Amino acid sequence: MRITRKGEAFEGTEAADPHRWWGLVVIALAQLMVVLDATIVNIALPSAQRALGMSDGNRQWVITAYTLAFGGLLLLGGRIADLVGRKRTFVIGLIGFATASALGGAATGSGMLFGARALQGAFAAVLAPSALSLLTTTFTDPRERGKAFGIYGALAGSGSAIGFIVGGLLTEYLNWRWCLYVNVPIAIIAVFGAFALLRDRPGYADARLDVPGAVLGCGGLVAIVYGFSEAEPRGWTDPLVPALFGTGVLLLVAFVWWQTRAPVPLLPLHIVRDRNRAGCFLTMALAVIGMFGLFLFMTYYLQVILGYSPVRTGLAFLPLTAAIIVGSTQISARLLPRVAPRMLMVPGMVFASSGMVVLTGLTVGSSYTTEILPALLLMGLGMGLTFMPVFATATAGVPPQDSGVTSATVNTSQQVGGSIGTALLNTIATTSSTAYIAAHLHGPAQRATVIPEGVVHGYTVAIWWAAGVMLLAALVAGLMVTAKPPGRAAPAEAPVPESAV
User: Top-level CATH class of 20-204?
Assistant: First the structure.
């Protein structure tokens, strides 16, 4: 992804584009669609699982197929925007995303839905970098750019809450399929808006696509996530499971080797050799492993175990998102100029882990107010304390020509962490539930009590693992992120993340 460099003129900088603020609406609309699609189907998932006959082990692919394709192809999407032009890539991404959404909404089986979600993720990986690049080149005045990025970042940060609420409304009052169909009219409006309001120059002739890098990197991630998924029905000792893990590791090693030799590498390795940036990337991936697992389990717990409606379930997640926004904008943003980033990231991950530990006490009759709400607030506050310094530290001091790929790498670690976390924790939960039910179910008369207890037991076991992963994130942040307080000086222009929360 090419970011405007200092001193590099963009056509139209001499006279500001009179339609730039309406252009921001178009860009923000597309970005919101991409972000909320990571959570909008969570609320619809129980309904979709019943309608399409998905197994508990396979249901996570509705989420994982999207995040994996998104994260695995995000770097390549930035290069495509450089090659064919930002506006053209933006429009192609919108049309492809809408088409994939329509296919998913019309799915007649689980395989069709999984494929459509993967296609959505692939086009989201094209759409998100081009949206950010268009925003960067549309707003060239520093004051206007700060305001535009603030609006863009607020939408990215609130996308998860909007996804939960919209998903609940559509599922309850229309049908789970409308959680996918809703993207079609949004994309159509954005396409017409893009043609009318957005300006861009042509692509760059010297841009090249690192297709072998994309195949090796994405292939390795798919093999590892698929290995976690197959561990539930087959067992960890089945020959296919370690074979998938081994294949994934080999492909990722080959990816790293190729990046040292590729003419235009997908991921320049000097970016991840920096200790602080590497620590931020790893902290982000570990943090999101727990968060995406929480979304999956709490959706099922609230709807299936406690009997919440889809709308009530969506509203139940609002405190989590509110706490993330408060932790990020009111605490981290105010303290970061004066304290080292790890002094926010380490407590943040400890808070989030503590919230997870509170949730390990869930039973089939837990109270939302006294047992779930405090955990969500702790989780949200911890994530808010962590996200902001991660993005700020990872992009600090990066040369302009590397700012785009650095931002994309942070977001790639976020999406990949979500993919692995959803697959791993879902496997742990379903395996633990099956073992519990087998050990405690001694007759048909017990099914009504033992099965719900077994399901909740599986969730709590997986949540314990998530709490441990978040403590590991705190350890990584404390040991690897050694950056000093950035001070009160004006920060260097840094890209806004393509997605958050």
Answer: mainly alpha
